[in-house]
Amino acid sequence: MRIITPTKALILGVIPVLGLALVPSSPALADKFQTCVKSFWPAAKRAGVSSDTFEKATADITLDREVIESANYQPEYKKPIGEYVDRAVSPKRLEKGKEKLIEYKKLLDQLEAKYGVDRHIIVAIWGVESNYGDNPGDKNVIQSLMTLACSGTKAKFARGQIVSALKILQRGDVSHEKMNGSWAGAMGHTQFIPTTYTAYAVDHDGDGRRDIWGTIPDALGSTAAYLKVSKWIPGQTWGYEVKLPKGLNPNKISEKTYKTLSQWEKLGIVRVNGKPFPRSSDKTTLFAPEGTNGPAFLVLNNFRSILRYNQATSYALAVGHLADRLAGYGPFVVPWPTGEDRLSLEQRMELQQRLVTTGHLEGEVDGIIGSGTLEGIRSYQRAKALPVDGYPTLTILKRLRSEAPPPPPAPPPQAATPSPVQQPAGAAKQAVPVAPAPPPPVAAEQAVPAPN
Amino acid sequence: MSLRKYALFRATAATLAVSLAVLLLPSSSTQAADPVTTYKKAVEARFEQWLQALWPEAEAAGISRKTFDGQLKGLKLDWSLPQIVPPDPAFLDGPVLPDSMKPKPRHQAEFDVPERYFSKSSLDALAATGRSKYKQLAPALGTIQKQYGVPASIIVAIWGRETGFGGAALPYDAVSAIATQAFMGRRQDEFRPQLIGALKIIQLGHATRAEMRSSWAGAMGHTQFLPGDFEDYAVDFDGDGRRDIWNSVPDALASAGNSLHSQGWDGNQPWAYEIDLPKGFDCTLQGPDQALPIREWIDLGVRRVRGRPFPEERLGDWTFLVLPAGMKGPAFLATTNFTVLKLYNNSDVYAIFVGHVADMIAYNSPAEFVGEWQTVERFPRDRMQRFQEVLVAQGHDVGKVDGLVGFKTRQAIGAQEKKYKLPLTCYPSGALVDRVLKAADAAPN
pTM for the full model? Predict the structure, then answer.
């Protein structure tokens, strides 16, 4: 029941249907694709790509419909940031990351010394990007990029990547057969797109090739090198979880308001663990993705360096938090908000358990809402003649509770390794607030600091 | 070559370095020989060694020892070529480059100011001869156009632009020109494979050394093919068994057609559309890295000149904005064919020139563009280079720092104009260059 990436979801669900519905590509369509592919030759030639390389890279590629479907995929369920972070920092990923820290200790020592980037961040990025290399993507990068460039979906992005991708082949860093990646051309352990690769990948093991696909020293070295040029400050953390004083409405503070930690302290913001901030002159901004209803953070420059890797703040928070957890720190002190469309981890697991018990779902109860869970909800909604939207809400959970006996307190047999955060259903039940989450308190406006 | 002579030659090559030292040392220490002669002699000796070292590469390419020695033995550097960077010193601890030989900046006509490059007289002259050739060679051109999907007018325009329809004298021996460029040219790496390619042409008997006359950059025949182009794209159109781009006009023109076709010419698109930009348009949107489908340009207010619509079925084509003179000249939306033309000569104005002359030939278009090439200031190349260096130091991407005003430099100028809140032109002006250089000089190091 882990989240299913759009591509995989399509392989499982949509593609067979399409295969039946569509006649094979007409010759004219294929011809148009080939003409479009060919149109990249002049730019490639000027960038030093030989006609041999170009021919080899483009000879057998065809328009890849899975790529187009993935690019057009609109998630029916937009995960709240808390759920995203829970999923990115799953117990399994944490456990595996700790193993990697031991396994690659020597390499990480070298990288810390050479690039000044904290080892836990390097491993956390590895974990979030490709699950430590387990999900590097298996699509031919040239075919994916040509498909996007020639079909109009994310074409502008792809057009900017193609020459860089061909140059990688020209230099011989990787063979055409091995240059695989995600549908969007994010490649290897580090999930670099070709332009990022060209600019920042390094050959750490010194074999003359920058191999982020098969060589872990190159992959992790490239991540560290990229963070370094993204102005990672050695010895600094990415941010602190903080407690906001009553009356301070974080929504009224621009995320571009920089203050030193001591200035924030004067406004009553303190660390959740009660300890003082180290280096109180560090400049930070306030990051409170759920306002006053969830964890809030003061983030430093290094948070912005992580954002260079992927500009979603939820991503940067997940990486930073996974790194902290790998370094032995605990989970967030303030819980993520719950409410009608924001179920807590325990509630999500309870929802899955109840769907399993009622026969609408099969698989592991892990609290991760993937396409399987969504389909399970739809199945239940259909069975009960409810509006079928597949959305995991408190209403659905309550309805399940009212109809079925509480699930057994023991972990279900399907779950091979119960996740450590899983609680007995009874406990989870108690934690469920019956009323929706309280609305954000009306801020006492005078409490909001005037920007200096 | 007899076996004995061959062995002798090998011995000579092997002891070259030694004999060289013996030869040179006394002359440079005992008598004050002419420094230019001394220097050239030293470099020539290095050149000879360098040529010999090419053998494995040549052998791998299928060139016989006979051809190799026959063409390269005793080959002299051509010191008269442009774009060469003589080594300084000639070799480690060797004679230094005499001051009198230090290169002076030159520029190719392609980078002249657009206003002069597109003078009505040069356009008219080329189009007039082009029209008569177009008629005269109509049967062959028709077949070529059909076979390769490239308009005959484009091929004729290239022919005219490259060699004045075969009339231009090609003053250099291709082998020595290419060897010199590969040994000490600005773009050595690009020419090295071309030298092997030139030997291959001789080896395979496509042309004799005497026929292989070329431009300073080794471009040969009516349509100015480099040896690599010859190998990849030259065709035997007249059916005499030879791919003769030197003496057979049909072979040369068909080869040009084949080259454009093979490199992605799309017969359904023009080379570019001349366009009108709306007032206050952001000229930093130019350049191939910012291509958009035509319909998105229309959304940005771009219109074709003379009120003509874009073809309905072409609205999805990706095109990019070309402003060779910034906002001080005509504007174009360039198609994929424009980038194919630039493979002939990597210059925006070259591609526009050829495309426009082709239109003048095919459609009797007027010599004038709808936009006007305004008078723009000219800059010494070294000053422009200094200006680019400062822009780079400020974090701009100007492409190659070469003193030439390419699209990235024009983008960077536009960005700088925005910063100074000046009217957007995306073309260098004396005032802007002065201001940027002054600010840089005033800044503490």
Answer: 0.77
